[in-house]
Specification:
globular, Porin, three-stranded mixed sheet, 242 residues
Length: 242
């Protein structure tokens, strides 16, 4: 759940370490029409979250509300459906918690103190454009080619990682993630239905702002008709943050 969109947001502190935020984001109806017609995107997406920032990590609960539109060529009026989603995420430093150390305030935290566990789970109807795997596949909503009904599509995604710092310059991580997509009827058998990913990487930080890494990724995809395929990939990466 990491698609970034242009938007505006206001964040308000409710108490020490507790914040609430609300904002609007650029709309886009990523739909499959199955017949001549156009998507309608004249209402912004509304997003909000409440976030607690503790000494060893944070917890965030988020919501999204959208209006997805479709303009049939046979009608002068657009058809619109409300869409919504929910998400929970956290980053937790388990070894810092066990040692009683605040990793954000420590002057020179050790590798164990830096190590962390990021987790996220997201689900909803009409949120496919916000999930990396399904963005651009027309899975926000679909028009049934037989009945002409316009319905939002269910989607969910999760990821779980462990990032271990050996020293302040060397780290490795292991990540598992999965995506599941529902059906509205009338979709072709080749439609994306689910995927699973497993990735591991190692990074070296020679100087501040510079990272060199390599990772291995395994992916498995399943279509609506039950067909499956998998792939393996090795990446080498260089990153410099200006």
């Amino acid at each position: 759940m990491n698609q970034r969109r242009p938007g505006a947001r206001v964040t308000i502190p409710l108490a020490d370490k507790l914040f609430i935020a609300g904002g609007v984001e650029q709309p886009f109806s990523d739909i499959t029409t199955n017949d001549p017609g156009d998507n309608v995107q004249n209402v912004p997406d509304f997003a909000s979250h409440i976030r607690y920032e503790g000494d060893v990590g944070h917890l965030q609960l988020s919501t999204l509300y959208r209006v997805i539109g479709y303009q049939p060529t046979t009608s002068e009026e657009a058809v619109r459906e409300g869409a919504f989603g929910f998400s929970a995420s956290t980053v937790f430093h388990p070894w810092a918690w066990a040692l009683g150390i605040n990793p954000f305030r420590a002057e020179n935290p050790s590798g164990l103190v830096r190590s962390r566990v990021p987790l996220q789970y997201t689900f909803g109807w009409g949120i496919g454009r916000y999930i990396q795997d399904t963005a651009g596949l027309g899975l926000d909503a679909q028009v049934d080619p037989v009945t002409g009904a316009f319905n939002t599509v269910y989607a969910s995604g999760m990821s779980a990682s462990y990032e271990h710092w050996f020293t302040e310059r060397w780290l490795a991580n292991l990540t598992y993630s999965s995506v599941r997509v529902g059906t509205t009827g009338g979709q072709p058998g080749s439609t994306y239905a689910a995927a699973n990913y497993l990735a591991t990487s190692i990074w070296y930080i020679p100087i501040r702002n510079m990272s060199i890494g390599a990772d291995y990724v395994y992916g498995d995809r399943e279509n609506l008709n039950g067909e499956r395929g998998h792939a393996n990939r090795i990446n080498a990466l260089f990153q410099y943050n200006f």
